[in-house]
């Protein structure tokens, strides 16, 4: 069994047996010739299977330690396929601090079709027990959460859920398999927005589901083919290319985030820094146990409220004001008014003084200097 770094480079398999190509070929064909009626070489129609996509699926599955992997056209398409495993009358219990698009999908698409959607603080087993609906068939974990960067104990929550016959899904987008392996901690499924760290270059949109459960894999694979929300060959190639450097990029993201978090904590314009690498973070001990690094995402709550938060977002120069995260360049955003606007006015509303930073792989000193000048503007403005 190879080390993770080796799987990043070689996880899709060896060179192409026909051409010797050391990276997967981009197979643009929508259909494939058959030797006889119903007899083909493994591919018949690209919605059902494509060589480039198959290479990506092997690769990410290897990184997650999974037997089965399924690539989708977006992270939400991947999440939709997982939620379709539930029947009307079933319930899903979600983190009360999760991506706004996940809430929107569950509550506005699946709930009207009969799915129960409940949210609670998944960092506390007593709270989970008190909130547990009898018809819960799935627990949906984000850890670290988006955007408050709370930490959920995957092993403990998985054991709790399995005792009650519920599947456990972990959105591993923020941590990636470079830092966290949810299946090894007891989760049943892992989902990704591969748009983010797996792709890593802000040039592709994609999603992924991984599992070790044969029955679960069959059900996800059926939906992938039946609904058809699959990535094209070039998108599959781009995510695969990103995976080859994932281990190196995540090391730098983590290093830079630590430097940025330390600087932010010392600045008078910042009220609170939210980063699980901080020893005072309430989830630090769990994160240190189940993660090999603390990630490249840092959130802050600002003194001065929403005006200060907006001012910071609009005053940086290297940190680009934009949605998304997990790419080589640093990004900054106001979740309440941008990525999480769909939960505005709900119990899951994001604080309006919150700013989320995706710390890239630039020079840490340049990133610190950029944030310092932006924060000084906020403080004196």
How would you characterize the overall build of this protein?
By secondary structure, this protein is of the alpha/beta class. It has two domains: 4-243, Aspartate Aminotransferase, domain 2 (3-Layer(aba) Sandwich), CATH 3.40.640.10; 247-380, Alpha-Beta Complex (Aspartate Aminotransferase, domain 1), CATH 3.90.1150. The chain is 37% helix and 15% strand. The strands form two sheets. A seven-stranded mixed sheet has the order 1-7-6-5-4-2-3, with helices on both faces. It has a five-stranded mixed sheet with strand order 8-9-12-11-10. α2 (51-64) packs parallel to α9 and α3 (75-83) packs across α4 (100-110). It is globular. The mean pLDDT is 95.
Q: What's this model, at a glance?
A:
The protein is built from 13 helices and twelve strands. It is an alpha/beta fold and 381 residues long.
Provide keyphrases for this structure.
five-stranded mixed sheet, 381 residues, alpha/beta, 2 domains, Aspartate Aminotransferase, domain 1, 12 strands
Q: Approximately what portion of the residues adopt beta-strand conformation?
A: 15-25%
- How many helices? The count is 13
How can the largest sheet be summarized?
Answer: 7 strands, mixed
Placed side by side, the strands forming the largest sheet appear as 1-7-6-5-4-2-3
Distance between the termini: 56 Å
Uncertain segments are none
Write the element-wise H/E pattern from the N-terminal end onward: HHEHEHEHEHEHEEHHHEHEHEEEH
The name of the CATH topology of the largest domain is Aspartate Aminotransferase, domain 2
Number of strands: 12
- Name the CATH class of the largest domain: Alpha Beta
* CATH architecture type of the largest domain: 3-Layer(aba) Sandwich
How many structural domains?
2
Q: Mean of the pLDDT scores?
A: 95
| C-alpha geometry | globular
Question: What class, by secondary structure content?
Answer: alpha/beta
Evaluate the radius of gyration: 21 Å
């Amino acid at each position: 069994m190879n080390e993770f770094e080796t799987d990043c480079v070689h996880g899709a398999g060896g060179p192409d047996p026909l051409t010797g190509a050391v990276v997967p070929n981009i197979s643009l064909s929508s259909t494939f010739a058959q030797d006889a009626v119903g007899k083909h070489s493994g591919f018949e129609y690209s919605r059902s299977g494509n060589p480039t996509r198959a290479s990506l699926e092997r690769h990410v599955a290897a990184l997650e330690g999974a037997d089965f992997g399924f690539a989708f056209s977006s992270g939400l398409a991947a999440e939709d396929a997982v939620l379709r495993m539930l029947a009307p009358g079933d319930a899903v219990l979600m983190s009360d601090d999760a991506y706004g698009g996940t809430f929107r999908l569950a509550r506005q698409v699946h709930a009207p079709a009969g799915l129960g959607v409940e949210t609670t603080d998944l960092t506390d087993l007593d709270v989970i027990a008190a909130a547990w609906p009898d018809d819960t068939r799935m627990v949906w974990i984000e850890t670290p959460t988006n955007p408050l960067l709370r930490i959920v104990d995957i092993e403990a929550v998985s054991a709790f859920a399995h005792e009650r016959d519920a599947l456990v899904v972990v959105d591993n987008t923020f941590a990636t398999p470079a830092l966290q392996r949810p299946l090894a901690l007891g989760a049943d499924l892992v989902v990704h927005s591969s748009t983010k760290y797996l792709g890593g270059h802000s040039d592709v949109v994609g999603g992924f589901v991984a599992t070790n459960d044969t029955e679960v894999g069959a059900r996800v694979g059926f939906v992938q083919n039946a609904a058809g929300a699959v990535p094209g060959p070039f998108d599959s190639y781009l995510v695969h290319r990103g995976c080859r450097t994932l281990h190196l990029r995540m090391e730098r993201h983590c290093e830079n985030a630590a430097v940025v978090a330390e600087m932010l904590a010392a600045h008078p314009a910042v009220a609170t820094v939210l980063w699980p690498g901080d020893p005072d973070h309430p989830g630090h001990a769990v994160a240190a146990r189940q993660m090999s690094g603390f990630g490249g995402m840092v959130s802050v709550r600002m003194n001065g409220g929403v005006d200060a938060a907006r001012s910071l977002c609009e005053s940086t120069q290297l940190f680009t004001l934009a949605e998304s995260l997990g790419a080589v360049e640093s990004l900054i955003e106001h979740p309440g008014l941008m990525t999480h606007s769909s939960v505005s006015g709900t119990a899951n509303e994001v604080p309006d003084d919150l700013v989320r930073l995706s710390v890239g792989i630039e020079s840490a000193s340049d990133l610190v200097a950029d944030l310092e000048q932006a924060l000084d503007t906020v403080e004196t403005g």
